[in-house]
Amino acid sequence: MDTKARQPKLGLREKYRLLTRDLGWDPTYQTRETLYPYAEYEGIKIHDWDKWEDPFRLTMDAYWKYQSEKDRKFYAILDAHAQNNGHLNITDARYLSAIKLFLQAISPGEYTSHQGFSRAGRELPGVGTQVACQMQALDELRHAQTQIHALSNYNRFYNGFHAFVQQRDRMWYNSVPRSFFDDAMTGGPFEFVVAIAFAFEYVLTNLLFVPFMSGAAYNGDMSTVTFGFSAQSDEARHMTLGLESIKFLLEQDPANVPIVQGWLDKWFWRGLRLLSLVGTMMDYMLPKRVMSWAEAWNIYGEENGSALFKDLARYGIRKPKGWEDASKGRDHISHQFMLGLYQWSFGTAFHGWIPTDEEFAWLSEKYPDTFDRYYRPRWNELRKLAAAGTPFKNYGLPMLCQTCQLPCLFTEPDDPTTLCHREVEYKGERYHFCSSHCQEIFDHEPEKYVQAWLPMNQLTQGTSGGGGLENWMKYVNLVDGQDNGDFEGSQDQRNFAQWKHNSVSNQA
Question: pTM score, two decimals?
């Protein structure tokens, strides 16, 4: 009787190759250049796509099982949060301004990333990169869905959540994250991967998710914490894949180094300007604060980033151009941006307010060299105006940066008393910038950025609802007196106080 030969058990590497790499094929009746027309036009040279290594070696069947288990846990906790009046467990309704900003600005960006990685997976020839892009595209889509589902419960009780989809496209401050992701999407596939998978996911994502989710936990928002925990394992994988992608490009050919370095210079600065929204949330919008933006930058920027670029130095990569200016601005950007949001609070889908004395003391402690000297006097003046019944509202239209689309309200890196403003004339038109780095990005690709959709320009041209503040508010689905304005005396403040009182009172 013949003994059947037993096949040796496949190792993880062999099994992964069979279920991913070996599913690819070589074209016959079409050339690779025809199938992948964007693989070479950016100037990146790839000699061996098989050198791409996925450190997780996650197959698609394992991926679906893993994600479905996370979803079961996520929606069970979310259901419990809704049934137990989780909307009353937050520290203060002011906190929801941060959540509204996140839903309007970040969640749609997750969906755009899903589209971008789907496209990159089609345009990059390597089977390993195609699988990695496919999984990350699915992750980004899931993140957008879980964030929207988690925060939708607040829409039942608080203002400012009802029109986040339209406001993503029309609200002035949402043009900042929208332009960031659209800029990445309109680059080539290699630039997109460097921009999102590395510059944003690896270099900057901890500055977004770690302080944000910690702040949610400190302020009793278990709905936001739940989607943060559910996404965190994905983010860890994204960061690892981002680092792998950058090393893969640098190891393939020395000619790739200057191209990648230019992209790092650009996308670090673009990402940093986007995260000014996060710094403002950390320093001003959390009733119970975790850490300051300056502390977060020191940990996740200076310490982690310095170690990262020290590691990449062997490939010829240095720190991004704007690194030093970012370090100089860490003590200023959140204060400058919050002062802007307060004076334009009539035009936002969340509330503004003047910090309390206790919050002033915290800001003075965290920013001992800058807050009392430059920013407390401004807040004190605004407080006097509010006490006199004439709160300051700036109905003038701010000048927007042509590149990052933030208002030009930041100061010179070495002089916090001087507004930073750069301008360039191109084909008979004058363009304005909030920093030298934004101007350099424009100078490198002017034909791209002259097409920027700037909301303030559209308003003056009458294309945002027909002109006038009232028509603009209708255009952006902003309910005046409910979604916007001062927190003090707002419907959100009154309702929250009444609901909290009823929850501990015998009175109906």
Answer: 0.92
